[in-house]
Amino acid sequence: MATLASSPAPAITQNPDIRFLGRLLGDVIRAYGGEKIYKQTEYIRSASVDRARGLHGADVVDTGLDALSLDDTLSFVRGFMLFSMLANLAEDRQGVAAEPGADVASAVEKLRSHGIEREAVLDLLSHALIVPVLTAHPTEVRRKSMIDHKNRIADLMLLKDGGRTETDEGENLDEAIFRQIALLWQTRPLRREKLFVADEIENVLAYFRDVFLPVLPALYARWERVLGARPQSFLRVGNWIGGDRDGNPFVQAPQLRLALARGCEAALGFYMDALHALGAELSLSTELADVSQAVLDLADASGDVSPSRQDEPYRRAISGIYARLAATYRSLVGKAPSRPSALKGEPYASPADLRRDLVTVAQGLASEGNGALATGGALGRLIRAVETFGFHLATLDMRQNSDVHQSVVAELLKVAGVEADYAGLDEYARIALLRRELANNRPLGTAFFEYSEQTASELAIVHSAAEAHRIYGPQCITHYIISKAESVSDLLEVNIILKEAGLWRAGTEGAPPQAAIMAVPLFETIADLEAAPKIMAAYFGLPEIGGVVRERGHQEVMIGYSDSNKDGGYITSTWGLFQASKALAPVFAEAGTAMQLFHGRGGAVGRGGGSSFAAIQAQPKGTVQGRIRITEQGEVIAAKFGTRDVAMTNLEAMTSATLLASLEPEVLSDRDAARFAAAMDQLSKTAFAAYRDLVYGTEGFKEFFRQLTPIQEISGLKIGSRPASRTKSTRIEDLRAIPWVFSWAQARVMLPGWYGVGHALSAFEDKALLADMAQHWSFLQSALANLEMVLAKSDLGIAAHYLPLVEDQARGAEIFDRIRDGWDMAHDGLLAATAQSRLLEKNPKLDTSIRLRLPYIEPLNLLQVELMKRHRSGEDDPRIKEGIELSINAIATALRNSG
């Protein structure tokens, strides 16, 4: 099938940062790599750019790749990888990723235009919860050392923005940036050793410590000005690293304790540094200021009797607070802080006690003048930080697979003499048995039996969670995610396991049970999503569960993007998630509790990637309600939260989108909503059939995928502690969604992000209705925008170079032709529905960003293919394997959201 003719794309205008950083990179390559590699790199770059521009004769020009030795290849790939990294930095600085209106001030103004005043916004925020949850899902291929150098360059560029020519240390700015790029050039980009969970904990801790701790209080200060009031701390941060055990045997009780302990250490250290700075700042003297009795009492209780500070009660009060916080640090962290206190103090029992003392100081400052010393400023930011991060820093989620829970509960019941064959019971019998056990506080476990390794490990986890509640407070762990949740018993089993550690307590006369940690089902496949409303209705229908949920005020349900996509394809997954969310809303309303959806999004479109701002607004009306959690993982963490400025932009977008999704009136009429939904049902059915027929119904497709893409090579990367596949099987069903999507992206096919959509658009007869939907329905606008991005980043011409890697050439060509036809249909259908003559015609910033990168990705793909051929033919030169892994790194960096 031939694609529609496209209009010529406009010339690319490079932003000045890319030109500046690219020139410095060239100078670094010449100085440190040598003239030869510089000239080779420049020749390959210019030839590839000419081909991308379609210049006459460029397609027959020598690419320059054949002249590269293995050593030259490694240097060349590093150079192109670094260019992409610097281009990412430049675009982030220029706000390429920022979207119009994606800030709270704009959202409040837009709501006001609809007649929704700030009081309604504040009311929503009084019970809102917005949480980005950082996970260790392995799609970040760069070492943290590389990211750190990049962030230092970003800091230096900020100085340059301010007209500076020197650093604070007197170094020439351009020379300092050159030096950081030179360090990047000489820093090994690949990990040699496999990551352990402890490494992942330390990696993510840097983001919490360096970015989230200072950024969230600064954002709240900004929002207080916008809202004219001080909202509660509705935006918080979550973490899976150290608690996510699903398919990762290396996460056990010690890792959970380590994650929480290190988080506590970081939070308390941040507070102590802030207090130390406040002590230096609050030099108010009783000779010049009226000081409240409460502050004087706090100062007298501090034990600070230094003669030089006797007239400075605020400093003495801060000294006492610091002494107590230092004692808290010693108590919770188990060692002395880096800056100990000379005073004695009792540890704080809770973050609320620390906050109370800080508020006393703030109220004292507010009592004088116009209160300017108490509002905002360092003290206000510290109070906000304590409210937001507590003593735990980030709430840690626990996650495990329902099959494991079933096995653990079966063993507990059998050993306790309650039920010899729990696995053999039907669902009704299981529910009845589990409810009987939840009605009492008698533990099933005993210290006089040696349980299986799995059961012992799971019990140790929940006992460690209970211990963490006692040490850090109940906010340190609040959610227990159940992967592969398919029944009510799957949820009840988790409550049984939690009961073993006292985290579920049976109800008493007139009072509901108490659940210190919420059991959260994760619905992943298309069938799971369809069954979700029925399962939740049955769960809420149990009196003891209904009581717990009403007492808590909300219940969370997690919906999975990755596995639903791998199961049913892009548009069916997207529509299934939308429909499930919408169908759950009345179930929660009937139960009398708020719904909190947890969106398990990844980086790639095939795993829920794309604009969070658009995606949140595209949720069905009534399903957000001010409460939303979203996973952030792999390379997306560095892309969205790598620097404070970028983090503020993305957190603003997430928050403003939540406000709009929760409060903005529905623009679709009931009639349009009904006919659009009917059309989507038809589109989804067609796309699902096409996708399933190719992926699961085509003979030899599994082998085609494993031979065409670098899945074998990706599985060997040292990018995470979790295995690439759930089992030793080679079935696609058993492969994790991350390597599935990541591999297709590397080969530039990106099949999970678009296949099947073209069949649906082509077969749908009412093209006018499609155009109407694409223009007026936020759901389809968001879905098509993501589809368009992934089509623009894919390149089946380059993908065809991978075909010789497929052993059965005839079958491989046949499958590839079907894939190419599917791409053509998706391309043509999208352009027709969106009234464009070429991809990204209406999104010039993204168009420029992608087309700027394409000439730098093509040579990497061509080299990757040749290296894979040599590697798979048995050549054992270690430089070949290193070259493949470098190319994976470089392509992922250039594509940005590929995993």
TrEMBL record:
Cofactor(s) this protein requires: Mg(2+)
Enzyme Commission designation: 4.1.1.31
Active site: H137, K566
Keyword Amino-acid biosynthesis: no
Pfam families in the record: PEPcase (PF00311)
Keyword set, alphabetical order: Carbon dioxide fixation, Lyase, Magnesium
SUPFAM superfamilies (UniProt xref): Phosphoenolpyruvate/pyruvate domain
Catalytic activity reported: oxaloacetate + phosphate = phosphoenolpyruvate + hydrogencarbonate
Domain of life: Bacteria
Family statement drawn from the similarity comment of this UniProt entry: Belongs to the PEPCase type 1 family.
Function: Forms oxaloacetate, a four-carbon dicarboxylic acid source for the tricarboxylic acid cycle.
Quaternary structure, from the entry: Homotetramer.
The protein's name in its UniProt record: Phosphoenolpyruvate carboxylase
